[in-house]
Amino acid sequence: MIATPDRTPLPRSFFDRPVLDVAPDLLGRLLVRTTPDGPITLRLTEVEAYDGPNDPGSHAYRGRTARNSVMFGPPGHVYVYFTYGMWHCMNLVCGPDGKASAVLLRAGEVIEGAELARKRRLSARDDKELAKGPARLATALDVDRALDGTDACAPGETPLRILTGAPVPSDQVRNGPRTGVAGDGGNGDVHPWRYWVADDPTVSPYRAHVPRRRRS
Asked: Region Disordered: start and end of each range (predicted)?
């Protein structure tokens, strides 16, 4: 039986913790994206943790850049990056100000505003696929680099907000290697930092890293 979701916004203190504590605790939480056409609410079902300088899979492993600077800022902010020249992905910054760590939001179930998400995800075969994968999630919620740095814990109106929702019991949480991460960062024995809700149909399939071929 799924508990009734709590609509109370998560405080900044929720994110001001080690990323490996925050990541699994985000499962079952609600992400609300307020758009000009109306709100879209997503129940988070899959995430990945990235631990900055301690993690070769993290964008912040080699230090601060213009691209990843939000990761070094206060917890509870949104880090959005552009990848493969076509997709955006959304993260939530964790830990103390100045220490770069973040949780990638990999998948979720659209529970409100599905009609708005469908307009952006025309290739989805059904609603379970609307946010099944990080790029699909960002596309369904109309998230791009314009939202990089957004404070999801700010008082008043904000384009992105995380609500308490219904946390997933620990016996329903699974973890394993992160999807598509190269080298040591993709080693599931060292970094089993992908977390998902067991048997949830919105969770994306695991794919190991495949090196990109250089053009001749």
From this structure: 166-187
Cα–Cα distance measured from residue 129 to residue 66, given in angstroms and rounded to the nearest whole number: 32
Q: Is 110 helix (H, G, I), strand (E, B) or coil?
A: strand
| Residue 89 near residue 80, CB atoms below 8 Å | yes
- Helix or strand run (H / E) with residue 92: strand 87-93
Unique residue bearing structure tokens 């979720």: 108
Query: 108, 133 in Cβ contact below 8 A?
Result: no
Mean pLDDT (whole number) for 101-127: 97
The values of phi and psi at residue 18, to 5°, are: -55, 140
123 C-beta neighbours (distance < 10 Å), count:
7
pLDDT for position 214: 58
Q: Tell me, what's the pLDDT at 1?
A: 46
Q: With a threshold of 0.90, does the pTM exceed it? A: yes
SS3 2: coil
As a whole number of angstroms, the distance between CA 37 and CA 88 comes to 20
d(CA 43, CA 26): 9
Cα 163 to Cα 153: distance, rounded to the nearest angstrom: 10
3-state secondary structure of 82: strand
Q: Is 98 exposed, middle or buried (0-12, 13-18, 19+ CB in 10 A)?
A: exposed
CB-CB contact of 147 with 172 (8 Å)? no
Distance from C-alpha of 87 to C-alpha of 201, rounded to nearest angstrom? 22
